[in-house]
Amino acid sequence: MDSNKDEAERCMELAELYLREKKYEEAEKFVRKAQKLYPTKEAEDVLAKVIMMSKQNQKSESEPTVRKRQAAPKESIYTQACSDYTKEQLEHVKRIKKCKDYYEILGVSKDATDSEIKKTYKKLALQLHPDKNKAPGAAEAFKAIGNAVAILTDVEKRKQYDMYGPEEERMQSAQTHQNHSHNYTRGFETDITAEELFSMFFGGGFPQQEFYMRRSGRWARQQDVQAQHTHSQQANGYTTFFQMLPVLLLILLTMMSSFFISDPAYSLHSNAKYSVLRTTRGLKVPYYVKENFHTEYQGSLQRLEISVEEEYLIKLRHDCFREKNYKETLMWKARNFGDQDLFTKAKNVETPSCKKVEAMRGA
Q: Region 154-159: what's the mean pLDDT?
């Protein structure tokens, strides 16, 4: 029943998407499917709204119905998003949902070593990563195994977890707000996200994974934009440093291009020292230089602007990742606690950095 509710919510999201695009037949189809999977008052109200708007549209419509059918090829893609998963993938998710502690989630004993825990996590992560597993609840299960490996591979956190057990008293109040699933945190939460953990284990991104993105009303297929930054597979604090290493090297090369400039040649932010605005010729990225830039800088302007664009894009992608992770976390908490207001708020969270990345990629 829990999986039906998750799939029903996904179908309702697709119905709202079609409704905004004034494709009433498709919207009605997905609302009815959601109502069949998990009947709710909200779905009933939306269905009545769709039927009413569809009738009004039919009265005022003067064009032939051929135009309405032009969008039909997209239906198979949207339908995929609602049911594109195997029975085996759903079983993996269901197993995680039934687990009561971190050891059971990972399927290891309480005497398991770090290497055994990490090895098991890698296997599960490849089965549950949302880019691969589209089953209802896969995102929550993926977060659960991430939280489990983060706690059990930390000496102090694992010691406290073993001492206090999975059923901490302070989680009882939270448990009363949810009757449909377990709380995977159990009072022991890590300060790193499931995606960051996955990147640490696999060097960034799903191995050879391709995914679909919604762009300007179309689904565009592209390779993972982080593939070029595969540096290290060590699960420690050096990961962030290795990810920023290309930017640091570019800045260093720019500084070495002239013996007379000790400060960086540019800044992405205006201040008293860098007050002259310039724009790169490629992506039109704004940056700031010193007043004596034209007379003192002797390096390659093209290489400088490449450095500016690279640093700007990396910063945007990092901000985009944070925005999307925050939005997904809110939606996960809303579903987990059955909080409709929080779910609505999560769906309306803006991701401005992601929009900028998409705009620059399409430029």
A: 88
Q: From CA 310, how far away is CA 246, in angstroms rounded?
A: 9
Q: Which two tokens stand for residue 204?
A: 């960034």
Place of tokens 């209802």: 136
Query: Which alpha helices (DSSP H) does the chain contain, by range?
Result: 2-20, 24-37, 41-60, 73-83, 87-98, 102-106, 114-128, 138-152, 155-164, 172-175, 194-202, 238-256, 293-296, 301-337, 340-347, 352-362
Name the least confident of 23-27, 50-54, 144-148, 191-195: 191-195
Given a contact cutoff of 8 angstroms between Cβ atoms, the answer to whether 307 and 251 are in contact is yes
pLDDT digits (tens, 9 = 90+) for 184-209: 444 455 556 766 667 666 654 444 33
Q: What angle do CA 167, 171, 173 make, to 5 degrees?
A: 135
3-class SS of residue 226 = coil
Query: Out of 31-40, 99-108, 305-314, which region has the weakest mean confidence (pLDDT)?
Result: 31-40
C-alpha pair distances (Å), 322 with each of 94, 126, 132, 196, 357 = 28, 22, 21, 10, 13
Strand partners, 68: none
Are the C-beta atoms of residues 173 and 145 closer than 8 Å to each other?
A: no
- Report d(CA 175, CA 192) in Å as an integer: 23
Residue 307 CB partners (closer than 8 Å, separation 6+): 250, 251, 253, 254, 266
Give the residue from 361, 324, 354, 121 showing the smallest Cα distance to 223. Answer: 361
Q: Is the pLDDT of residue 178 over 80?
A: no
Structure letter (DSSP) for residue 227: G
CB neighbourhood size of 41 (10 A)? 7
